[in-house]
Design a protein that fits this description.
Chain lengths: 292, 191
């Protein structure tokens, strides 16, 4: 087996079975903040126990192992063709080993061939840089939470949302309200203000690569992130929508330029089973460092 | 925490209230999209599947056959219930179901059926695949495996102390309706 293949299978295994530290810390804080004896607290306790059990048994945290999305940062002249071939092989092998559920369905025939391979499955994004390092990040994006994502085109009359920051705030909070507990909250929002319909959602998902505790370098977006997080948690939706203090664990917002005619706000929702990991590869494609 | 042990009589189910946490012990049958559509379209159950006074679980488990040919459940969390809203009320009525387990809650039609026929909606913890799989003690049987595929088949499972919360009861109460109304009002004050 090639070294790269082995490294990628290990990346998939760990992503599927282990919650990254930053998310786990946020979940523990949320468990501690829920009122004792409430169903919200019980839900968080079960979530904690599930995380511990999955790690110990090296089994998927959730049975929906999601869409498999790779983000690769690589030097100039990196062989992306070979990488993608090996990544597909790694997904197939990880599925055979049970780290991923047979989760990919042909949209026309409804057939599931059990390999998790097909058009767009997995997705691999390459980003070249001038440095020498190769970093591979992986997000397993569940379907239940993907279904509660939303894209708004401003102005939105019913929500009184104009083409300004207050309008953005209104639609993002509407997405939280509509989602209730259906995306397996407490969740994390990734948001993109601007872009087109495709890049808007694309950039909103890339926000999930940020550490939960980081702060946005743009002071305007930072203030919006903190405000949405606090306001959402004041709504009382709570874990699983049971009512309670933690509705969101984090909010990450970016902006992209738009054409004058469009003003999109794209919101992606990540469930509590926030599966993302990353590795740095050495010259021999061995894992030299874990990124989260 | 209330132990809820089979058999599930109407009186026992009607005594449950929104917000009660239960630990369920007994037989549950899984059923998701394909099963709901099939039963709603008038499909017949195999003679040895009896849903009367039973529990239907919206779940597509991950199952493996061991060396001796016994099925084992390795992941068994709930799937989103709202997809079954068009079918659920009639299925509760026609098959005499006493409890539906799922996640995300269901709508007014199902709530009305719970009230009329004596049924509750039990919310399991979404994503807690490993904790819930540990509560499955045995796979008793599987039906429609060929026809619908493993996740969509009817799995008859013995569960023990399976944790869930009553979020829709048989007295017309729904936690989902209440939390939505409350959060909507709170949001309106903050816009
Ligand atoms: S939303 Fe997330 S936790 Fe919930 S079932 Fe889907 S993948 Fe699992």
């Amino acid at each position: 087996m090639s070294v790269l293949l082995e490294s990628l299978i290990e990346l998939i295994r760990r992503s599927s079975a282990e919650i990254p530290d930053d998310v786990n810390e946020a979940l523990v804080r949320s468990l501690e903040s829920e009122k004792k004896g409430t169903i919200a607290e019980s839900a968080m306790r079960i979530i904690e126990r599930n995380i511990e059990l999955a790690k110990r048994k090296s089994q998927p945290i959730c049975q929906d192992t999601g869409s498999v999305i790779f983000y690769v940062t690589c030097p100039v002249h990196f062989d992306t063709v070979t990488f993608e071939e090996v990544a597909r092989e790694a997904v197939k092998e990880a599925t055979r080993k049970g780290f991923l559920r047979q989760n990919s369905v042909d949209s026309i025939t409804g057939k599931n061939d059990g390999t998790n391979l097909g058009p767009g499955s997995p997705t691999v994004h390459f980003h070249q840089h001038r440095g020498a390092a190769t970093e591979v990040r992986l997000v397993l994006k569940g379907g239940g939470c993907e279904n509660v994502g939303a894209q708004y085109s401003l102005p939105q009359e019913t929500l009184h949302a104009n083409r300004d920051l207050d309008g953005c705030r209104r639609v993002i909070l509407d997405a939280v309200l509509q989602a209730q507990g259906k995306g397996c909250g407490p969740g994390v929002l990734g948001v993109c203000i601007g872009g087109d319909r495709a890049t808007g959602y694309e950039f909103s998902k890339q926000q999930f690569l940020r550490l939960l505790g980081d702060r946005n370098p743009n002071p305007t977006l930072d203030a919006l992130e903190q405000d949405i997080l606090k306001t959402a948690n004041d709504l009382g939706i709570g874990p699983m929508g049971f009512g309670g203090r933690t509705t969101l664990l984090g909010v990450k917002i970016c902006a992209a330029n738009r054409v004058p005619a469009s003003y999109f706000v794209s919101v992606s929702y990540m469930c509590w089973a926030f599966r993302r990991q990353g590795i740095e590869l050495d010259a021999a494609s061995r894992i030299s460092r874990w990124l989260y | 925490m209330l132990p809820l042990v089979a058999p599930f009589t109407e009186a026992k189910i009607r005594a449950l209230k929104v917000g009660d946490e239960v630990h369920l012990t007994g037989i549950v049958f899984t059923g998701r999209d394909a099963v709901h559509k099939y039963l709603h379209d008038g499909g017949k159950l195999p003679p040895d599947v009896n849903l009367r006074d039973g529990i239907l679980y919206h779940c597509g488990p991950v199952t493996l056959k061991d060396d001796q040919g016994h099925w084992k459940v390795t992941a068994a969390g709930p799937t989103t219930s709202s997809r079954e809203e068009p079918y659920q009320a009639e299925i509760i009525r026609d098959f005499g179901i006493r409890a539906v387990i799922g996640k995300g809650g269901m709508g007014e039609k199902t709530l009305a059926a719970c009230r009329e026929f004596g049924c509750v909606y039990l919310h399991a913890i979404g994503g807690a695949a490993q904790v819930l799989a540990e509560c499955v003690k045995r796979v008793r049987s599987v039906h429609f495996l060929e026809q619908f595929g493993a996740p969509e088949a009817i799995w008859e499972l013995d569960v023990e102390a399976f944790p869930a919360v009553v979020t829709m009861d048989s007295n017309g109460n729904s936690l989902h309706r209440d939390v939505f109304a409350h959060s909507q009002a709170e949001l309106a004050r903050r816009l």
